[in-house]
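Listing S7. Sequence submitted for prediction.
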Amino acid sequence: MTTLKRMTTAAGAAGVLAALCLAGPAGAFEGDSVAAANCDYGGKIKSIEAVDELTVKFTMCKPDPAFMAKAAFTPFGIQPKEHLDATGGGGEILERPIGTSPWKLEKWSRGDSIIMRRFDDYWGDKPNYGTLVFRWSDSGAGRLVELRAGTVDQITNLSPDDFESVQNDDSLTFIPVANPNILYLAMTNTFEPFDNLEVRKAVAMGIDRQRIVDNFFPAGSEVASHFTPCSITNACEGEAWYDFDPEAARAMLADAGFPDGFKTKIFFRDVFRGYLPEPSIVAVEFQTQLRDNLGIDAEVVVMESGEFIDESTNGRLDGFYLLGWGADYPHVTNFLDFHFSAQNPQYGDVYPEIYEVLEEASTVANVEKAKPMYAKANNAIKTLIPMVPIVHGASASATLVDVDNAHFRPFGAPLFHRMKHPRDIFVFMQNAEPISLYCADETDGEALSVGQQIVEPLLGYAIDSGAIEPRLATGCGANDDSTVWTCKLRAGVKFHDGSSFDANDVVASWAAGIDAANANHKGNTGAFEYYSYLWDGLMNAK
């Protein structure tokens, strides 16, 4: 057998897309690959190669012991190579993803619902009911009314005031959600006066975070001592956040040139989150505290969800903004590397004092060896104050009592096919409508919760513990220094369109996200933020 390496360059691209073809008898598997020209681009991934039909090899530019935790995350779900090519990675794929999951998308009625049907060719255990419906409401009280009326079977994010009544309702099951999260008040340092560190520090000391937790969050919530919740290993190394000291804060603001405060805005989206229940009410509380504690006159501005995410994460909001994060996978890199990487513009100019140590720490597998690095990074965050960490919020879901194996995972939405349901239609009500269903280019939680019912990554997170478990890969293993990860794929898997799953689908799905020169690198926003931040940058970018 001879081996040919076919090299192609995308039009106008700065890098190389390589396809490795193993020539041989008719019908022999031809394995694709994607590669960076070299590792000088600064990212973690050097190449991804389909070694054979059921083997994919990831070669890294630097060690990544968190590879499996990341690869189990929904944005790295697999779609058919042919579907990516046919859609060009945009357009139709944003609303009609094709996956391998127990649920096949039937219809997205914008503004109303998303309907999925059971996929009877699913490789694993199939649902005991035929239809899964997603609906949405931005009102916690409204979601609970529908649950009690029986028009939905499960709801997300109970309002804090409703915890006790649900716990005492024999017709409902109360489900605590163990998802680590953070609400923060952010500022962008490319806009005045947030370019002044003393102003940011005054704000950090002038917010009574305990008052916010006591008045607006359910029992079990806690004031954030660090950006990352302490349930995550190495999250809370280093110094705790500033204590509330309004007198010192006002003096600091005066020394910075603002003895009478200043005028600005507080931006937010009116979408209920575990880290931000009843966002409009909490936004007014921040407005009140900024005025009373610091003399800052902040106008409250509500934005449409998609616009808010786009503007905030690209660093274009010229005031305060309320944003947060729920853990996607069980590793400190999910919080710190995403928010404080060299590629993240949301706080304005990036801070090498933070991202350089995070890049080093992310290559260290030994948690004890990594501990002082995360202490240094957390201390730099406290010193530079790109945002103010407010609260790690407690949250809960609820179902009708006749749903068996009702759950809400610590990392990701429920696995609905593993619930037992006495009726043929299961209706889940979440906080808001998805922005799109192409999860490779979304960070929106509503998009990810729907998308993970349709597409599957190589690995996944267990229901109770969040531990890594097989999905489309039966397992992934690394060499001694975690610079080469090899994943063995599950045989006999079918996509929803009837096509067969193989290693080239994995390469194509990852290449559309990680390779900026790939013809299918379009998506919804084109940012592919999780690919960029979690792997330290996109290969072959101009």
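Caption to Listing S7: primary sequence and predicted structure tokens for the chain studied. The chain is about 25% helix and 20% strand. The domain at 181-392 is CATH 3.10.105.10 (Dipeptide-binding Protein; domain 3).
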